[in-house]
Amino acid sequence: MIDAQAIVNILIQTSYAATPLLLAAVGEIIGERAGIVNIGLEGIMLISGFASIVFAYMFQSPFAGVVAGVLIGGFIGLLHALITAYLKGDHVISGIGINLFASGFVPYGVEAVWGVRGYFTIPASLKVPRIPGTDLSPIFLASLILALGSYWVLFKTPYGLILRACGEEPRAAESTGVKIELTQALASTITGLFTGLAGAFLAIDWLSSITKNLPAGRGFISLAIVNFANWNPLLGVVGSYLFGFFWVLIGWLKLTPLKEMIPLPLMETIPYIATLAVTAGVIGRARPPRFTGRPYRRE
Amino acid sequence: MKPSSILGSIDLSKLEDDIVEVVFAVLAGFAISGLLMAAGGFDPIRAYVSLFKSAFGDLYGVSTTLSFATPLMLTGAAFAVSVRAGVFNIGAEGQVYMAALGAVIVASLSLPSELYLIAEFLFGVLLAITWASIAGFLKSQRGVNEVVSTIMLNWTGFWIVEYGRTYVYFDPAEPQRTIKIPEAGRLPLLVPGTELYAGIIISLVATVVVYVIMWHTSLGYEIRATGLNPIAARYGGVEVRRSMLYSFIIAGSLAGLAGVMEVAGRPPHYAITTGLSNLVGLGFDGLAVSLIGRNHPLAIIPAAIFVGALTAGSRGMQIESGVPLEMVKAVQGIIILILAVPGLVRMLKQWRGKK
Question: Does the record's keyword annotation contain Iron (chain A) (predicted)?
């Protein structure tokens, strides 16, 4: 039966499911607004998740883990900017490279560090502590603050105007003295920092483990949320909570009598089909920044 | 006739640069991964020697390498056709799953034995084309980003096939896999005692056919024109949406062939195994193959053999040097990151000039 406690539980679980989606989506919105598309979010989450566990162990502190995950994510974002903004490489191919590298490096790393195949779980002492008196994660709070802050910076500050100009009209922006590559590199690094926090959240906050399937498509769902949100961080919050809720919904449906009617593997398809349906329904109205994903070359 | 015109699009001086770039990227991929292995306490030289030996050391190794290259030529060509049309269709993975399921569905029917093989191919490839067309339709009609849609379709396909494997087409004797393809529906082995099956001939022919379509037919011309510049192509009278849709259909049929052949050709299972373990990754490895082959159907053949060798050699590497076999994916990732940078040869020359 559905009672008040069940609803509260679903809301708390939704806050967990939505947080990594929101962080990566807002990071990607900042990058794409500046003209850099990064489809390597999945790989960044995976490597950052791994790094956060390694550093949490090394310093016996979840805080060190979070910092390491964020910084490694930022480093990969910077590397992506080096390839795309400075060396004019293809954005999608670089992202594919990041994902592929991560899918090979992390299982290797898990074995190299802990000597186990494929799967490692952390003790409760290395998990990020809850917000006192609640079942909520501090990173959940951070993700909302980062989303609101990103909206404010993008749309209410002169710096946001410059950043958006790099994705919309780089030629015009450059003629007013904007350093396109530098702005893009900064934005891409921010994409990485935010996505790195998402990876750390998955590994040492929510799921407390690392496997090569840690992100399970969440990086790509974040890309769908970017489209859904029409490149606006506030709508990104709406999208992330909507998609996060789908995820919680199947977890909950699995416990109801419905599981007798719908086999579990088919229930697993729900978040992906929902993502597809919502993206197909909404995308007609959404328009990406005009120059995003294209290497910017001077005439 | 200039020598370069024999191969249609291939400009020989550019071909040389391409080869230099790919060789440089491959060596850098091995070097950087070697450093990572050393940092993790493994011996990279020993790892690479065992990798090379198990991929090429004897007839069994070469056969294994070629057997792994067989589906990768197809999934690589699938991605290459898409990229040439200007779309990043990374859905070969899901299309492979669906095609394999199609072949198993056919195997579950009672048919005259001479019909199995043809029916597996027809139905399996049809399912894969259907799966690819969903993304093609969403892209051309609704403007849905194909990276997002194909990934969602990959996961959806995974769970649908997993459902079929566990609930409908499981083998009562060995429930961890589906029913086997009947003997009449299998492709013959080329080298007895190995995994090399006749599918490699189909892969080679299909890859050459893709090359002919892309460079010697008007459909191929329109697909490539769409990818080079959709706006100019539209002014030139090309139906851009239609060529994109065709690229999805061609890609779907290639990935579909790969999926059918993996269950109808490769020993020992002739079935879909737990967690789709004999299918997972074939589509994604195709991305690497296509990018290493510079998205050219003919160059994809050696690129597929290279990635096939990494896959075949990774088993020996893990056994002999303890380096987890997934490491070869990291090598491929680094190669692709380096190949993402355009004009690498020019930069290398400039750098050498400065020294």
Answer: no
